[in-house]
Write a structure and sequence with these properties.
The complex is a heterodimer of chains A (99) and B (551). Chain A has 99 residues and is an all-alpha fold. Chain A has one domain: Helix Hairpins, CATH 1.10.287.3510. Chain A is built from three helices and no strands. Helices cover 69% and strands 2% of the residues of chain B. Classes of the chains: A mainly alpha (99), B mainly alpha (551). Chain A: Its EC number is 7.1.1.-.
Chain lengths: 99, 551
Amino acid sequence: MNPVNYLYLAALLFTIGAAGVLIRRNAIVVFMCVELMLNACNLAFVAFSRMHGNLDGQIIAFFTMVVAAAEVVVGLAIIVSLFRSRHSASVDDASLMKL
Amino acid sequence: MSATAVHSLWTTAAEVEPLGKIPTPHIEYAQLAPVLIVVGAAVLGILVEAFVPRRARYYTQLFLTTVALAAAFAAVVGLAAGGYGTTEKQIAAMGAIAVDGPALFLQGTILLASLVSVFTFAERRLDPAAHGNRIDSFAAEAAAVPGSEHEKAAVKAGFTTTEVFPLVLFAITGMLVFPAANDLLTLFIALEVFSLPLYLLCAVARRKRLMSQEAAVKYFLLGAFSSAFLLFGIALVYGYAGSVSYARIADVVEGSVRTIDPALADTMGNDALLLIGGALILMGLLFKVGAVPFHMWTPDVYQGAPTPVTGFMAAATKVAAFGALLRLLYVALPGLAWDWQPVMWAIAIVTMLGGAIVAITQTDIKRLLAYSSIAHAGFILAGVIATTPEGISSVLFYLLAYSFVTIGAFAVVTLVRDAGGEATHLSKWAGLGRRSPLVAAVFAVFLLAFAGIPLTSGFAGKFAVFKAAAEGGAGALVVVGVISSAIAAFFYIRVIVLMFFSEPKPEGPTVAVPSPLTMTTIGVGVAVTLVLGLAPQYFLDLASQAGVFVR
């Protein structure tokens, strides 16, 4: 199968993720959409790696996975602490500093 | 018959060669010493948290952090003295990290700025002692729900979040690598390494904890969003050039590669990959810089984060991110300058004007300084656009001048307090000059430097940047820059007028007398501001010697 198709899929997943970040209101779901964007990047890296016939893209995909895991640790810690003090993970409720 | 020959009787070598052999990496430890010292100290700091008794942790961590930052700065100076900034510049760690003038200059700036801002992290004399324990700006226990019994018990027991010291060291590690990153993967990893600790640091304020947590969530979600864009941009540029190394990308963009395989010929013909990819990477970097379409997080995060963290973040992140932006645009994408220059022009103009105009309406001193930092990002972008050696050196000098003014200004903000902690509303600053003339005078010096009044470092920096931009053919940009400087001067002067020429309120805030730690921070800030303003020539020369990238 032509690897370019995987690029279209990556672009589609990335767009779905970005739209989700902008539309959804729950911080956890927003964060999951960011993870979807990172996975779309991984797919693009692997597809390009196959097209160019070098290993750089596949190795970068591993790094991305590690970064995504680290981001989960930090992100969930912050979101859970927000949830415990407000009993809500809605990003709309977090508006103490609006002008 | 030898064993292998017997073996070959019933096996044959695989027809297909492995895709590519991965050589064992060769690491130049001496040239990477500044980064390694800081990351080593950060790991030690984690061990200190695990094994040292709670009572001794604060002093151990403060000692470890100070020594590590000083040692790393000494290593940078040693490398610079060894000529690595000029004649010996090279690319270390298998092409991942550049050791050259801009990298060393910015690493030195980041380390010095971090050193003085770590002193404000350690300040424990601003608030009266609670239950016989001295308290700092950070939560007794960040995991405890604000206002709960758990939190009260933690305060009573005198807990402190000494984890902020290893966290800040990890953040500094990422910031040291960021301006030196010589391939896109290192760029992305360094970005995450300094961002993740900063998200956490934003969430651990002792007072106004809800605001602090909110700032952290906003910073985290928007930061993760922007780094996903950066990563997708990296994927597209990798697809275009078949490599993430800056030198290789520059060759492919300029069309000067020697051997072109069919796959590369195919992707090289697709300019959309390069243009979209480059734009997405720029978007990620401009987010960290706080340039205008991507600045939305800045005021909220600066206001909500603990003030020592705000000062550190405002100075060091900006230095690191502009370093990375310069290297990307000047080393990897100079062949694309005709495409990125118009875009950066537009961004610089809206950033300068937007930051300056919105700042006028602000009533909170931390938000005011946040918008002022946005306007300054615009001024620095004017130097980036110049695409001349003077452009590089003027940006380096501006970053040095700006970081110390910022850290000093935020350190002064921590001193003005009332019953609820820091009194950040501007109305409470009325008449501060009558009540404590010294603090108000010091803050006035910082505001004048922000405004770019002669005899301060702000003037020397702005002059250098605008001169470089004008000589680089961006005259219109300089006109906009001067206009927005004038607008910005209005609100800086307004704060000075408020402090010195209005009556103090009877229930106004008090000015805390800090320990020598914060005094050092503010003193260094004032000294650097005045020295760079009165005798900038030595440092301008240093910046222009350092202003050549290795490729």
